[in-house]
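Milestone 3.1: sequence recovery, worked example.
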């Protein structure tokens, strides 16, 4: 069973403010901003909303992994190696850019005209894997186990990790990460262990305010679109959260933690390496279509053509 003896301290909370990204997309970015540049091993967290006519047309990556979790709608994906697919609600894609990928991520047209909404998390790659071959792991909604706790008032989708005795699929990303989608009904309380020493955060997606335990006996109420950054003290072994009241809306949040890395992070746009020299080299490799970007030559995605890219 998942039982927490000492909840992690809350180091900081911040509101993810809306900004433009890609071509006509809007995102609420909480990691990768002036107030939280990075959170080792996490580089960026975007809560995106993309309508048809907007999107993320052809662009490169090197040196990181991305985890995309689609909440509503549909997103098409295509890359220069011929990989393509569609994410539907509840699906995830784990992409390892490695030495180089060029791809496009574009929204589907929903019958009711609604936007396509999800999360994208950028995770650093350890130095030894910066130049690995790119790869993808898709995780379909029906492959994600869920567990109900606290007399039905808590439901946890176990995307990566273990919760209340239920384990997720394995080997989704190179960088070890746990990832839970948690819904707590009024009066409900969840306890989730997090590997000791790992860096963790919670992002409140929707619904009621969530009251998070804050170290020894304290609590903090956190609203929608806020990121809660937790400490990782030696004795702090997990996260405790509850929703007040006896009726009304549930609170929903994702809880994520990752194994920290002892390495320099030099990021410029879509390239994340360990030195400025490697970033300069990445730009040169991309522009000259070499060292992993050979297949970029003359490539244009089908899904990006609608935007003239």
């Amino acid at each position: 069973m998942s039982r927490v003896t000492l909840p992690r301290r809350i180091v900081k909370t911040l509101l993810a403010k809306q900004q433009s990204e890609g071509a006509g997309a809007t995102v609420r970015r909480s990691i990768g901003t002036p107030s939280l540049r990075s959170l080792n091993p996490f580089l960026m967290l975007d809560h995106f909303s993309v309508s048809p006519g907007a999107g993320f047309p052809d662009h490169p990556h090197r040196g990181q992994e991305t985890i995309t979790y689609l909440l509503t709608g549909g997103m098409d994906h295509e890359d220069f190696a011929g990989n393509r697919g569609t994410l539907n609600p509840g699906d995830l894609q784990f992409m390892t850019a490695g030495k180089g990928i060029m791809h496009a991520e574009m929204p589907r047209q929903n019958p009711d005209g609604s936007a396509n909404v999800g999360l994208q998390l950028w995770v650093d790659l350890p130095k030894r894997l910066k130049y690995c071959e790119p790869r993808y792991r898709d995780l379909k909604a029906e492959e994600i186990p869920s567990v109900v706790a606290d007399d039905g008032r808590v439901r946890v989708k176990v995307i990566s990790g273990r919760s209340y005795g239920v384990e997720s699929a394995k080997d989704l990303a190179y960088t070890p990460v746990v990832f839970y989608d948690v819904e707590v009904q009024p009066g409900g309380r969840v306890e989730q262990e997090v590997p000791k020493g790992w860096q963790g955060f919670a992002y409140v997606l929707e619904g009621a305010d969530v009251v998070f335990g804050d170290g020894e006996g304290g609590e903090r109420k956190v609203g929608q679109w806020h990121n809660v950054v937790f400490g990782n003290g030696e004795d702090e072994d997990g996260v405790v959260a509850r929703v007040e009241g006896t009726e009304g809306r549930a609170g929903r949040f994702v809880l994520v933690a990752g194994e920290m890395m002892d390495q320099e992070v030099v990021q410029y746009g879509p390239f994340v390496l360990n030195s400025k020299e490697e970033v300069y080299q990445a730009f040169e490799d991309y522009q000259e279509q070499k060292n992993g970007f050979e297949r970029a030559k003359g490539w244009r995605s089908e899904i990006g053509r609608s935007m003239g890219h």
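Residues 8 and 259 are 16 Å apart (CA to CA). Residues 10-258 form a domain with the Jelly Rolls fold (CATH 2.60.120.10).
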